[in-house]
Write a structure and sequence with these properties.
single chain; alpha+beta; 2 domains; disordered N terminus
Length: 277
């Protein structure tokens, strides 16, 4: 069984207040102080970094943030479920806005419990992500809309709320505890539920099981490749190679799949290349 007693937040009250204020300030800067963020978080991340989406085979790697030649890059592993991708994107924004250094984000960093050294920084990033994605006022409004009584909150209601905000089930439980909607006893009980039982409720409510999107995006590589092709700077063969890298079929961009074979095509030339005599 999940050791739920070790995954409740234990941040110092002053640190938690400071993070809440920082999240509120950033939401105002993004003009999202009154909106549920959800998957729009990736758009916000794109405004502050070059976003890479790639389905890594190792699902314990959730993402990373790094710099190259003064450019910030963030990467999200699309082999993890969408709601986890949303949470890690907000986690990465904390590192970009407040740390400014490289971070490899592992599943244990999101679900970890130690509050010391570098792990404290990850806990801060997690709390920021929760504050940014699940604003207290909006969460309370959703609870009112669903006519949820705090003492009656169970798996069903947690999943309803998690679905509204596009965040993981366990992240929603922690958020409800952080803003004192549920007690520690309730949180421990909800976090201790077996994953299979939670999945049964997901199916029952019609949400389906969490699944990876497997999406690929290498910054603005696709747009740049199309611009280069349309300007006769690269051949169709090279364009098809770049499309394959990001998992896009030519017909998805309005391109014909039937292409004549090139004979040793140089860049900057479309069509067949006559053999030199």
């Amino acid at each position: 069984m999940h050791d739920s007693t070790k995954v409740l937040p234990r941040l110092d009250a002053k640190i938690a207040r400071d993070i809440s204020l920082s999240a509120t300030q950033k939401l105002m800067e993004c003009n999202k102080a009154s909106d549920i963020i959800g998957t729009y978080i990736v758009t916000i991340l794109e405004q502050h970094s070059n976003v890479l989406l790639f389905p890594f085979s190792r699902t314990d790697i959730w993402g990373f943030v790094g710099k190259y030649e003064n450019k910030v890059f963030s990467c999200i592993n699309t082999s993890i479920p969408l709601e986890e991708q949303v949470f890690v994107a907000a986690h990465e924004l904390y590192h970009i806005w407040f740390n400014g250094h490289e971070e490899l984000i592992l599943s244990k960093d999101i679900e970890g419990t130690e509050i010391s050294g570098t792990q404290l920084n990850e806990q801060k990033a997690n709390r920021f992500a929760a504050e940014f994605l699940v604003q207290a006022t909006l969460l309370k409004a959703e609870i009112t809309m669903f006519s949820i009584k705090p003492e009656k909150i169970g798996i069903k209601t947690v999943l309803q709320l998690a679905n509204s905000f596009t965040v993981p089930y366990r992240s929603m439980v922690k958020r409800l505890f952080e803003i004192e909607i549920i007690t520690r006893k309730q949180a421990i009980e909800l976090l201790g539920q077996p994953e299979q039982f939670i999945d049964h409720w997901r199916q029952r409510l019609g949400y389906g099981l969490p699944h990876p999107t497997k999406k690929k995006k290498l910054g603005n590589l696709l747009d740049l490749a199309m611009q280069a092709f349309e300007s006769d700077l690269i051949t169709r063969d090279k364009l098809d190679y770049l499309l394959e890298m990001v998992g896009i079929e030519p017909n998805q961009l309005g391109l014909s799949a039937d292409v004549e074979q090139y004979l040793f095509p140089p860049d900057g030339v479309k069509g067949n290349q006559e053999e030199s005599e």
